[in-house]
Fold this sequence. Notes:
Mean pLDDT: 93
Strand content: 5-15%
Strand order of the largest sheet: 1-2-3-4
Helix content: 25-40%
Structural class: alpha/beta
Oligomer: single chain
Number of domains: 2
Amino acid sequence: xxxxxxxxxxxxxxxxxxxxSNQTFDAIICEIFLSExxxxxxxxYNVPLIGLxxxxxxxxxxxxxxxxxxxxxxxxxxxxxxxxxxxxxRVGNFAFGIFERLLLDLYYLPKQAAIYKExxxxxxxxxxxxxxxxxxxxxxxxxxxxxxxxxxxxxxxxGGMHINRKxxxxxxxxxxxxxxxxxxxxxxxxxxxxxxxxLPVEKRKAILETFRGLKQRVLWKFEDPKLEGKPDNVYIxxxxxxxxxxx
Length: 247
């Protein structure tokens, strides 16, 4: 998936036009997830590479700044462990780390390196050198919601930086729906990539029946104003002021 997405991005006409232009930048900020060939933009424009780890600290991004991840107490984010692992969990964590390293180094990264070389043939540094010399890695993670682990100085947790610090008033009907709930409110959203209105009918009915049995009221980000079988404790809208609701 990541290989196809990377290639599709670099084949985009607007991206090709940008690469052919004389436009300059101060830095390149690139998400660190299955798109390593895009680091070539940093070398192409001769600017620092800033990585954004939306899934927190992981081998995909700790490598970029040399941040250590001791398997004895730093659990892989893909495993259901915490920092207090048993002996066998530590063995499993170590073994999974070896498997992940082999997958990265022997299979996946070489494929990304081939795309890098194809689309950035004039870059002086190869993808591996650019990748391990990132200027900064920002992590969508916060110390209050994660476990203790070591970081180097240029790998920084910035989880929550997108949250508005000042709450704006909610629409009157939404405010009333929330305030009149005696048992609290559940906010249910599948994000912007999955649209609830396209769920199969049987799954939609199952969700509604689950909500119907709750004593709490539910806010559901649903993109169609007509939802058959909607119980009274469910409020639907194609968009919610999420920060203001959660604040």
